[in-house]
Amino acid sequence: MYINDVVLHVNEALDEQARHELENQMRTIDGVIAPRFNDRRTHLMIVAYDPDRISTVGLRNEVQRRGYHAQHCGA
Question: Which domains are assigned to the chain?
């Protein structure tokens, strides 16, 4: 298995509980290994994932499906 990381910018200002809930929801997605919000930049979620199972677009879509606006950062 190859593991990739992506940074997702979540537009909404989420409190600690909402961030924790979103991390837990993301963990249930096939291919997601370790989602975690940055403690200093709370709009940024770093997601370790298996690119053979889910794409960066798929990750962004999963965040959006949960009612948030998001985009991935970088290339």
Answer: 4-73 (3.30.70.100)
